[in-house]
Design goal:
Mean pLDDT: 91
Number of helices: 8
CATH superfamily: NAD(P)-binding Rossmann-like Domain
Largest sheet: 7 strands, parallel
Number of domains: 1
Structural class: alpha/beta
Strand order of the largest sheet: 3-2-1-4-5-6-7
CATH class: Alpha Beta
Shape: globular
């Protein structure tokens, strides 16, 4: 069973920083052809601009993927550079605090648009291309494409201050299952990686401002540490590879066991 993605073409969104950047870089190191996509062009250029000029398997695209035209332009740019697309990783996510009792707080609507609808529309667009490729390739067996969504364990936890984020992640997980069934006849697999605390740039900043937060995270994680972005990237690679060719509609949890714990301790005997 091979976990190789060598020679495959992948689009990775949210690829200018954090876990998205880690996934895109990991894929490139594994000899995939990777389109780094993000709204932040300056950061994309800073992170991979020089590499994109030197390495044939790396390119980048900047644009607001909440716009339908931008999604179409991303696909066109990928086809112009790499001729096809085999893997889509929806890694662009936004986390914003919500006030669940404030009817004027638009965070829920904004996060559903960013975290759910953008991923749905992009998945629909790329899936159509994958179906067309399958017809052109004439292959009747094997996977014809893989979509991997990045979600969060917040979908299964209750944090009122993260109402919008939790709801959008829960919706993303259900979207994963629904698309998996809809696309199964076309041999396109759809899965999700739901992760816990990962040492991204944003979490590093949070840890600097809140000295006790690191210990709190570790205390609530059975493996007693915070994950590195590369550990999520490896899980994404597995789901995108032929090694996972009989896996679809699944939410893979990468959280060090955090969701196994009940935050309320049993009374001492």
């Amino acid at each position: 069973m091979s976990f190789s993605i060598s020679g495959k073409t992948a689009i990775v969104t949210g690829a200018a920083n954090g876990v998205g950047l880690a996934v895109a870089r990991h894929f490139a190191r594994k000899n995939a052809r990777v389109m780094f996509a993000d709204i932040d062009e300056a950061r994309l250029i800073n992170e991979i601009g020089e590499e994109a000029e030197k390495q044939e398997n790396i390119a980048y695209f900047a644009g607001d993927l909440r716009e339908r035209l931008t999604i179409a332009n991303l696909l066109s740019a990928t086809l112009d550079r790499f001729d096809r697309v085999d893997i889509l990783v929806n890694a662009s996510r936004q986390m914003t605090a919500s006030d669940p009792l404030n009817p004027d707080d638009d965070a829920v609507e904004e996060l559903l648009q960013q975290n759910l609808m953008t991923s749905l529309r992009l998945s629909q667009c790329i899936a159509k291309r994958m179906i067309r490729q399958a017809a052109e390739d004439g292959q009747e067996e094997g996977s014809q494409g893989a979509i991997v969504n990045l979600s969060s364990i917040a979908a299964r936890r209750t944090h009122p201050e993260l109402l919008g984020y939790s709801v959008s992640c829960a919706a993303l997980d259900q979207m994963t299952r629904s698309l998996a069934v809809a696309l199964a006849p076309h041999r396109i697999r759809v899965n999700s990686v739901a992760f816990g605390s990962v040492l991204s740039a944003s979490l590093k900043d949070t840890l600097k401002d809140h000295s006790g937060y690191r210990a709190d995270i570790k205390d609530h994680t059975p493996l007693n540490r915070i994950a590195q972005p590369g550990e999520v990237a490896e899980a994404v690679q597995f789901l995108a590879s032929e090694g996972a060719r009989f896996i679809t509609g699944q939410i893979m949890t990468v959280d060090g066991g955090r969701t196994l714990l009940d935050p309320v301790n049993a009374p001492a005997h």
